[in-house]
Design goal:
about 350 residues; alpha/beta; Quinone Oxidoreductase, Chain A, domain 1; Rossmann fold; 2 domains; seven-stranded mixed sheet; six-stranded parallel sheet
Length: about 350
């Protein structure tokens, strides 16, 4: 049984025929599946950027579970192992995969990205090399949180975050908050986070932000807000800004608030096209870098969680079972936002 996205705002729990188990595959009983913003976006619009849902699709990609069966060539896992699943399968034949940048493989098969089915299911079949064993002190929910945390870890690697990097985070949603946690674990000495919502800023405070700034949605407020951000950050200024929202205003603010010679990393992709003040940023040699998904992050994420350097448990605010009613309620809760940060299914 799986959660099918069958139409606009319509999810149905219905049967699904599992693919055969290949020699290098494992069959996993799903135990924890989180709802991502992209899942909600597909539900509400049936598309995300260039990905369009044209036929019924199984939803979900943040997941962890228990190995039930292994293929004949699998050596590193056994039935009963608790694992976190990396949801994207590169082709391993293209130049990008051969260079190690499989996250931007043009032929990637990624859970719940049309036409590939996702993991909000009782069971899935997945390559064993993309299933990572969890240590005893981590829960399956924490295993599922390795997926959003991987986005933040990949962003911190791309931006070279370290002990001399002051960080600004635009947006205190789930990805903004895990980016705060990851930047702290990478050694950033000062992290300021910005949002329009008081509750989410209070969560950021509790998670260890060095400063928070409440902003508006009005473009004309940018100069005043940049001034406040710089005051809160301090004299050294912002070395790296992570835009975890991806709107005209957040990107414009990020470019304006980042010091000369700094970097702006695009993490959130709220709008396909944005209009931003590039010329002043170029004159200050502010670099703009993008990220898409992640690569080779699960071992580090698991170690950061195992060691206690990152604690994602406070981000899991709502839990639901796997009935038709609860699936509908869970997605409504996630879409509503507010005090719902990470909504998790316990299967």
């Amino acid at each position: 049984m799986v959660a099918w996205l069958v139409g606009l705002n319509t999810l149905k729990i219905q049967p699904f025929k599992l693919p055969p188990l290949g020699p290098h595959d494992v069959r996993v009983r799903m135990k924890a599946v989180g709802i991502c913003g992209s899942d909600v976006h597909f539900l509400k619009t049936l598309r995300l950027a260039d990905f369009v849902v044209k036929e019924p699709m199984v939803i979900g990609h943040e997941c962890a579970g228990i190995i039930e069966e292994i293929g004949s060539e699998v050596k590193n896992l056994v039935p009963g192992d608790r694992v976190a699943l990396e949801p994207g399968i590169g082709c391993w034949r293209c130049d990008l995969c051969k260079e190690g940048r499989y996250n931007i493989c043009p032929d990637m098969k990624f859970f719940a990205t049309p036409p590939i089915h996702g993991s909000l299911a009782r069971q899935v079949v997945h390559p064993a090399d993309l299933c990572f064993k969890l240590p005893d002190n981590l829960s399956l929910e924490e295993g599922a949180m390795c997926e959003p945390l991987s986005v933040a870890v990949h962003a911190c690697r791309r931006a070279n975050i370290g002990p001399e990097t002051n960080v600004l985070v635009m947006g205190a949603g789930p990805i903004g908050l895990v980016t705060l946690l990851a930047a702290h674990a990478f050694g950033a000495p000062r992290i300021v986070i910005v949002d329009v919502d008081d509750y989410r800023l209070s969560v950021a405070n509790n998670l260890g932000a060095d400063g928070v700034v409440k902003v508006s949605t009005n473009m004309q407020d940018i100069p005043e807000e940049v001034e406040r951000i710089c005051e809160v950050m301090g004299a050294v200024g912002v070395h790296v800004t992570f835009d975890c929202a991806g709107f005209n205003k957040t990107m414009s603010t990020a470019l304006s608030a980042t010091r000369a010679g700094g970097k702006v990393c695009l993490v959130g992709l709220g709008h396909n096209e944005v209009t931003v003040p590039l010329t002043p940023a170029a004159a200050r040699e502010v670099d703009i870098i993008g990220i898409f998904r992640y690569k080779n992050t699960w071992p580090l994420c698991i170690e950061l969680l195992r060691s206690g350097k990152i604690d994602v448990k406070p981000l899991i605010t709502h839990r639901f079972g796997f009935s038709q009613k609860e699936v509908e309620e869970a997605f409504e809760t996630s879409a509503r936002g507010g005090d719902a940060i990470k909504v998790m299914f316990n299967l």
